[in-house]
Every structure is written in structure tokens, then in C-alpha cells.
Design brief:
Number of strands: 2
Distance between the termini: 77 Å
Number of helices: 10
Strand content: under 5%
Strand order of the largest sheet: 1-2
Radius of gyration: 21 Å
Shape: elongated
């Protein structure tokens, strides 16, 4: 006797291919980002995310153990989309001013373009102070991000005769991330009050202090 579980899915008499696990996972991450940005981390529900992606809630749990893990995965995927990623691609720039101006302008445009994402990260940070599980996820992400950024700052700074020890740049990495997040909050609260040039200037000040010999 053949059970329902053993019966292959069919379409017009032909076996219907099940979606690959990596495709399901990718679809859930896309849907999760949309839902999180629309209604925030706290209000988002896994069944809403599953429905948006076109899957069951069980599909979420088979790929992610919790909402925290799902959001942590999104954070991890965004890890390289940071100042570290930008700075690591500037070998063609040989002066401090060019490096600072290019990086600061790029990051400022990202603050304006991705206000909802930055606001979401701030919300998750606040939730991290209330929820131990969220806090553990967020601290791991932020420490990894600070470490990556500090290492990249050290590599770029050495080209201008500044110290090359990543430990020296940890505080600058923290200040830079705080500046980016803070400016994103200001933009979200009052978009007309903060301009791209003002955001660029704030980021430039931190980068210049970090990279100057």
C-alpha cells in the first residue's frame, strides 16, 4: 500500500519537482526582509513570512529554528555590505582624502537609500536589551562586524603611515557603526532635517580620524 507521503507530486501526470532547499531558504529570506522592513521585527510573525514566500510555516522551521535565527541570517548576509566592504575595494585610490570622500559618500547614500533596514537594525538592537536570545544573536553579529571593520581600517590606514594593528581601530569601528545607525534614525524620524552632505560629513570625520597617520 502506498501512503500519501510516498506518492510523488504530479502535474498533468508528470512528477512535479520539489523546490530545492536552497531555493526555499532564499525565498524565505527575501520574504522575511520585506515583512521585517514593512512592520518591524517585533510585529513580524513567521506564518506571515511563510505566506509571503509561498510556503508553509513548517518550511520556515525546517530552515530556521526561530525568528531570531532568521533575522540573524539576514544580519549575517548584510555583514559584507558595510564600510569594510567598501574600503576593501579602494586599492586604486592612493590619497587619504580620496579614500575618505569616496567611502563616506557611498555610505551616506546607503543610509538614505536603506532607511528601513537601518531602522530595523536599531529596533533589533533595542530588543536585544530585553530578550536574552535576541541579545546573544545581536552581540555576535555586532562583534563580527566591528572586527571586520577594524581589520579593514587597519589595512587601509597602514597605506597612509598609520598604525596597522586592528585593535587600535576597534573604537573607530564602533563609532563609525554608531554614526551610520544614528544618522539612519534621524533620517527615518525627519527625512527633511538631514541631508546627504551632512551624513557624508559626519562619516568623513570618523574615517579621517581613524585613517590619518
Amino acid at each position: 500500500m502506498t501512503t500519501q507521503k510516498d506518492t510523488p507530486d504530479t502535474t498533468a501526470g508528470r512528477p512535479r519537482r520539489r523546490p530545492r532547499r536552497e531555493d526555499v531558504r532564499a525565498g524565505l529570506l527575501v520574504a522575511a526582509l520585506e515583512v521585517f522592513e514593512e512592520i518591524g521585527y517585533v510585529a513580524a510573525r513567521l506564518d506571515t513570512i511563510a505566506e509571503r514566500a509561498g510556503y508553509t510555516k513548517g518550511a520556515v522551521y525546517s530552515n530556521f529554528g526561530s525568528k531570531q535565527e532568521l533575522f540573524a541570517t539576514l544580519l549575517g548576509e548584510r555583514l559584507l555590505d558595510t564600510a569594510a566592504d567598501v574600503l576593501s575595494q579602494l586599492d586604486h585610490l592612493t590619497s587619504l582624502d580620496e579614500t575618505v570622500d569616496h567611502t563616506a559618500r557611498y555610505l551616506a547614500r546607503g543610509v538614505i537609500r536603506e532607511q528601513r533596514w537601518h531602522s530595523l537594525v536599531v529596533e533589533f538592537a533595542l530588543q536585544a536589551g530585553r530578550d536574552p536570545e535576541v541579545g546573544a544573536v545581536f552581540r555576535t553579529h555586532r562583534r563580527n562586524r566591528r572586527s571586520l571593520l577594524a581589520t579593514t581600517l587597519a589595512e587601509r590606514a597602514s597605506a597612509f603611515g598609520a598604525p596597522s594593528d586592528p585593535e587600535h581601530y576597534t573604537v573607530f569601528a564602533t563609532i563609525l557603526l554608531a554614526t551610520i545607525n544614528g544618522m539612519a534614525v534621524e533620517c527615518a524620524a525627519d527625512p527633511d532635517a538631514v541631508t546627504e552632505d551632512q551624513i557624508t560629513g559626519s562619516i568623513s570625520a570618523v574615517l579621517r580620524a581613524a585613517l590619518a597617520p
